[in-house]
Amino acid sequence: MSTRIQGGAGQDLRRDILTTLLPGFAGPEAPEWLLGLLREGLGGVCVFGSNVVSPAQLAGLTAGLRAANPLAVVAIDEEGGDVTRLFFDRGAPYPGNAVLGRIDDLDLTRAVGRAVGDALVAVGCTMTFAPDADINSNAQNPVIGVRSFGAEPGLVARHTAAWVEGVQSAGIDASAKHFPGHGDTATDSHLALPVVDLPVEALHERELAPFRAAIEVGTRSIMTSHILLLQLDAEHPATLSPRILHGLLRGELGFEGVIVSDALDMAGASGGRGIPEAAVLALAAGCDLLCIGTDNTGEQMEEIAQAIADAVASGRLTADRVTDAAARVRALAAGSRATGERGGAAASAAPLVAGGEPGLPVDLPEDLADRVAASFHIAPGTLDRLCATGAVGTVVRVETVANIAVGGVPWGPFALAAAPDEAAPAPAWLSDAAEVVLDAATPLPDPASLAGPVVVIGKDLHRHAFAVDAIERLRAERADVVTVDMGWPSEDLAFADVATFGASRGVAATLAELVHDALAAAAEVS
């Protein structure tokens, strides 16, 4: 499994090349090819939900990775909201960014970042690909939405900085993303290349503000985006653009930390060119650590390493650029080494239990649920319709295809029903109601046949024509319909009688309690 890179200087180059690579892998155990490359100097590993069975298992896994390479970066995409890997089986117990932005308390955002960091330390991770620093200025955005702190640059900037401060205070490296901003898009870069034609002045005033704030508080890394910004570089997406990474991020903004690519298996980066070529272009553009993707193989990694070596040999990529990138990654990892060792020891000791999440510390403010509930939008008359009969008659569960960043994480009150625990039990009002599952291929039953009141629960309801049609049919034929949008609603809130601005387990528990309390209060009055 060796490339053609051989002999003294060649071996040094191979080691440097490997240090720039951050693959994923399949399953809960590290494969031998991965451990072998780590022993050769592989930069690190990206942990995905499919690699996580339990906190204890993850702690053992990361300890093994670090034993193979004590300077390995152990990264995870843990945003502390709808996007979670650590709580992939049940949903994250934290409020996501959009809720934190609506509450607008920097101390709370800092505390949530710290709580996420403490949990990651406990399982031996060293970096999280968070916070999401995008400004969600487009309500049709299919991939950012509630991952963003909001739509106003100043708000997003100050909360991005606070979250970075919180998570890094625990010893976890932050990676503010997706530079230079993925919020004003209507295309998912996992599937295609988004194109943004935004004036440079507007980019500086709006999209770049959160990244400047993250840099000012010392974020240790920044993740790039696979979007084409016509006014900056009409040929290359940001991840592959020297003008954007070297010129703008390094030059104008003065960032000296590690630049991490978003996953190169995404169509926005490798579509039409393949991952090996994308890796060469990303390094040449200024990326230091290349997130390859998930379920990678040893053969893929050798192909990528050889493509980079060939690019150096042909003069397309300088050896100095590879050496510089590797040095930045090693410096980052060296600063994380003590954290990783401390985390592995903590997670292998007696189980840590707080906030109802077995095996992990979840230290959140006691009044958090009340503050989350106060951040919800609830239209006038909604609770009257909800409580008209003293019980929820039918729940219409709107299932849409989750973007790849979110994946198959249980969401909303349905997560509580699927995996109840002491802190967040299954809601009785949900269990007692009839359930209708609605998706693009499943038509709505006759509205008159449903027991009322009818509660429709989904995410980004306005973006899905079948959901809009179903809601309009229900409203045309019934007066007892309540719509709950647990994503980013349309600006006019037309399909969100209740908008929670997140569907994490923590937000869902608050919604479930709100409904329970409203029904109980109505029962007392009657």
| Rg result | 23 Å
Contiguous runs where pLDDT drops below 50 for at least 5 residues:
1-5, 338-358
Q: Mind summarizing the main beta sheet?
A: 8 strands, parallel
Name the average pLDDT: 90
What structural class do the secondary elements suggest? alpha/beta
Question: How are strands sequenced across the largest beta sheet?
Answer: 1-10-9-7-5-4-3-2
- Binned, the helix content reads 40-55%
Which outline best applies? globular
How many angstroms does the end-to-end distance come to? 74 Å
How many separate helices?
A: 19
- Number of E-type strands: 16
Report the sheet-strand fraction: 5-15%
A few lines on this structure:
The protein is α/β, with parallel strands linked by helices and 526 residues long.
Task: Characterise this structure.
- The protein has 526 residues and is α/β, with parallel strands linked by helices.
- It is built from 19 helices and 16 strands.
- It has helices spanning 8-19, 32-40, 55-68, 97-103, 106-122, 153-169, 200-207, 209-216, 242-252, 267-270, 275-285, 298-314, 319-348, 368-375, 382-386, 412-418, 428-432, 465-477, 505-525, and strands at residues 21-22, 44-47, 73-76, 127-128, 173-179, 195-196, 221-224, 228-229, 258-261, 289-291, 377-378, 394-398, 434-438, 454-458, 481-485, 498-499.
- It has an eight-stranded parallel β-sheet. Strands 11-16-15-14-12-13 form a six-stranded mixed β-sheet.
- β14 (454-458), α18 (465-477) and β15 form a beta-alpha-beta unit.
- α3 (55-68) crosses α13, α4 (97-103) packs across α14 and α16 (412-418) crosses α19.
- The chain is globular and about 80 Å long.
- The N and C termini lie far apart (74 Å).
- Residues 1-5 and 338-358 have low confidence and may be disordered.
